[in-house]
Design brief:
single chain, alpha+beta, Beta-Lactamase, Helix Hairpins, Heat Shock Protein 90, 3 domains, 11 helices, 23% strand
Length: 430
């Protein structure tokens, strides 16, 4: 079974070929211009052979024969005086039949004018161009590099032929995959739009019948609750509780879907003020649980205030919700001495960042699930024990991601939890 190379491997191989060509071209240029007095070449037995200027012509041909590119030398009439085996392979002609042929015989009609210009200018200055070489019934895309060379038989035109087939195929493949990526992105945008429309329908149209179920069930329990048998009263309570959970889930789904839009407005904001606002909003819940929220000195950062408020509210309400029985919740919101640490954002640019911790003395969780808890609708406890849709942490992670930050958790069962948020101080505007 053949294994296809990855784009990274293809690009790396293409780069190696390019470097080989540059190295060969530089070496040949040094020989031609007399910048070297001698060459040391490895023979087939691994021994070193020294070639001096007296054997420069032979040295040149030994070197050319070892190249991965085709090479020919032409006289003033364009007749091939010498070629290496690589060019014969590119042209699909036996090496013995190449010598003495006009090089123009390997040029297709459509490229003849380009070749004539290259041949004429090559005697005056080094030049190169892309052209096709005939190889049987097919055309091979090549790059021709020409320069003059003073050999024993006189001044000749040296032509280096680089087969561009692999490079062209790679470029075509990359172009094709870029088109596929663009198509996939367009389809993804359409899919996101459809999902947002669905979320909007779910938020408005589905809530109306759900609201009636909740209202009429509550009215039924209020008016006839005492008259109902115990099992009927239990079923009615389950209907009301399920309706309330469904309403919460619909609202959370709408909130999550809205985060897919690109309406991010960042402004320098005092994070301490946001936490204090959240604590004020959760006043009733805090009083019911006899909770304590200790807020440290948090720095200011460029954030979307409304989204960050939602993150802080999710984390604080979770700490209150998942507290131990008969143990008042204690929540610490702190920054790492309000210090600035290095942070690498998604685009790879190094940025200044802050670290914020939300720690509590609650029930905690097994660290095996520290990544799982940020998944959509993921719950580690049954809905009968703790209310909620299981979307809160998923929303928080998505918001922090839109801020080019990270959120993680460390915890042990029965020993509380700590959620760590890392945010860049300033958002990249580019």
């Amino acid at each position: 079974m053949s294994m296809q190379k990855t784009y990274k491997e293809l690009l790396a191989e293409n780069e190696r070929l390019r470097l080989q060509l540059e190295e060969a071209t530089e070496t040949i240029h040094a020989i031609r211009t007399g910048q070297v007095d001698a060459l040391v070449v490895n023979d087939q037995d691994g021994r070193h052979q020294l070639y001096t200027l007296k054997t420069a012509d032979q040295t040149y041909r030994v070197f050319i024969e070892k190249m991965n590119e085709g090479a020919v030398t032409l006289n003033e009439e364009g007749i091939i005086l010498y070629c290496n085996s690589m060019f014969a392979s590119i042209a699909g002609v036996p090496l013995s039949k190449v010598i003495g042929l006009p090089f123009a015989s390997f040029i297709p009609d459509g490229f003849r004018e380009i070749y004539n210009d290259l041949f004429s200018s090559g005697w005056l200055e080094d030049n190169k161009t892309e052209i096709s070489i005939k190889s049987g019934d097919r055309l091979v895309p090549c790059q021709l590099s020409v320069t003059t060379l003073d050999l024993d038989e006189g001044v000749s035109l040296s032509v280096i032929i680089t087969d561009l087939t692999f490079q062209k195929e790679t470029q075509t493949l990359l172009k094709l995959n870029n088109q596929r990526l663009e198509q996939a992105n367009a389809e993804l945008e359409k899919s996101n739009h459809d999902l947002q429309q669905f979320a909007s329908v779910a938020s408005h149209d589905l809530q109306e019948p759900l609201r009636k179920i909740s209202i009429f069930s509550t009215m039924l329990r209020s008016r006839h609750g005492d008259e109902l048998p115990a099992d009927s009263a239990m079923y009615l309570n389950k209907i009301i509780a399920s309706s309330n959970r469904m309403k919460t889930m619909i609202i959370d789904i709408l909130s999550y879907s809205k985060l897919s839009t690109h309406t991010d407005h960042f402004a320098l904001t005092d994070l301490t003020e946001i936490v204090k606002d959240v604590v004020d909003d959760c006043e009733i819940m805090i009083q019911e649980k006899n909770a304590t929220v200790i807020i440290g000195d948090l720095p200011a950062a460029e954030v979307n205030r409304g989204q960050m408020r939602q993150v802080f509210q999710n984390l604080i309400s979770n700490s209150i919700k998942f507290s131990k029985v008969d143990v008042p919740p204690v929540i610490h919101v702190t920054s790492q001495d309000a210090s600035v640490t290095d942070h690498v954002s998604k685009n790879g640019n190094s940025q200044e960042a802050i670290s914020i911790q939300f720690s509590d003395n609650g029930i905690g969780f097994n660290e095996l699930y520290r990544d799982k808890i940020f998944s959509l609708f993921e719950r580690l406890n049954t809905k009968d024990q703790y209310e909620g849709s299981g979307i809160g942490l998923a929303i928080s992670k998505k918001i922090i991601g839109k801020h080019n930050g990270t959120i993680s958790a460390i915890s042990r069962e029965g020993e509380g939890s700590c959620f760590i948020i890392r945010l860049p101080l300033h958002q990249n505007k580019s």
